[in-house]
Amino acid sequence: MMVLMGGAAVAPALPLISEAFPDASEATISLIITLPALAIALTGFFVGELSDRIGKIPVLAVSVAIFSIAGCSGYFLTSLSAILVGRFILGIGIAGIICTTSALIVCYYDGISRVRVLGYQAAAMGMGVLVLETSGGYLGGVSWRAAFLIYLIGVVILAGVLLTMREPARVNVEKTSGAPEETFPASLLLPGYATVFLGNMLFFLVPTKFPYLIANLDAARILGENFALTAGIFLGAMGCASSLVGLVYGRVAWRLHRYTLLTLTFVFFGTGLCGLGFATSLLTVGVSVVLVGLAQGILMPTILSWIAAITPKQFLGRASGGFSVAMNLGLFVSTLAIVPVIAVVATYGNLFLAFGCAAFALALPYALAMVKRQFAPPEVAVDVRPGAE
């Protein structure tokens, strides 16, 4: 649940934080959300390799502790610069959580069971968004500082890690005479990393700019003037949609090809983001954020299954670290891309429309690959289902 939205748990309170620090630009305030992503992008690969060397459970336990301590530090710190330092340290903790949890699932499960559990992981992430965003929105309505207290949930999770989780058996790699040595499949992983990078560039527009969009939407005033809570409710609905996808992912995705799933992902992204761009009613807003949640719910387990299918187990920590780097680099670059785009398009609505059109463009290569595969000769057709080994 902390993997994707941990850094964005305080997103509903961003407008209030902007009011508390009036001399800071909106881009600087947005660093509260994006700095954790940058920290993950810079450290994820190394943390993943560390988990391969010393064990995944120790790295996970320390990472959850960092998540909780650094996450709630914003409640106590008085300067914006100190808060931003705490957010960077938070990202290091999230990096360890991403690397170890994904690798542990792959170590514990194989085949269709793995695909199903990766779907459950996506469901848990979606429920995490629901809990973190609605709770963060509620606490943000009390005060912007209180929103940071949501990270204390890490204390409960740390207890669960220490009491219930076990280190998987280490893989003993014995080289057979004449057999090629297994190596880290970097070139095979790059397309998956690129896909999650682009998908998260699109996705992260919502938690970073949706609170500002909803604050300027006249229809949102029906729910009152607490826009942090209103934004939190809608972002929670997005997480709920992602969670529902995760619950059925294993039963549905096993029958579909990877290209089909990724085509659906970017079509849902495009429709949802364009819907937010055109939104004048709360119904349109609700449907749009649900579509974005569905897209993210498909994207994450599909890419993780792709990685698991082609990575030897002794490299899973490193591969998961690469995944976390790609995912969070996408989140960070998203905020950089927003600045020149909004300077051109002028309004938040047009910003969402621009990103939505980009999503439709990204759906095209996967749709073409899907069609090409349908007409490929049987002897050269490649099984690209999420669980294919």
Describe what this molecule looks like in 3D.
The chain is mainly alpha-helical. The protein has one domain (2-167, 188-374): Growth Hormone, Chain: A, CATH 1.20.1250. The chain contains 14 helices and no strands. The chain has helices spanning 2-5, 14-20, 26-54, 56-71, 80-108, 111-142, 153-164, 186-203, 205-215, 227-253, 258-278, 282-310, 316-345, 348-374. Helix 3 (26-54) runs antiparallel to helix 13, helix 4 (56-71) runs antiparallel to helix 5 and helix 10 crosses helix 12. The radius of gyration is 20 Å and the shape is globular. The two termini are 27 Å apart. 56% of the residues are buried.
List the main descriptive attributes of the protein structure presented here.
single chain, 389 residues, mainly alpha, Growth Hormone, Chain: A, 14 helices, globular
Helix content: over 70%
**Unreliable residue stretches:** none
Overall CATH class:
Mainly Alpha
- Percent range for β-strand residues: under 5%
Distance between the termini: 27 Å
Q: Tell me the domain tally.
A: 1
Structural class: mainly alpha
Rg estimate, integer Å: 20 Å
Round the mean pLDDT to the nearest integer and report it.
81
Count the beta strands: 0
Just name the CATH architecture: Up-down Bundle
Element-by-element helix/strand order: HHHHHHHHHHHHHH
At the fold tier of CATH, the topology name is Growth Hormone, Chain: A
How many H/I helical runs?
Answer: 14
Give the overall shape, derived from the CA principal axes.
globular
CATH homolog superfamily: MFS general substrate transporter like domains
Largest sheet report: none
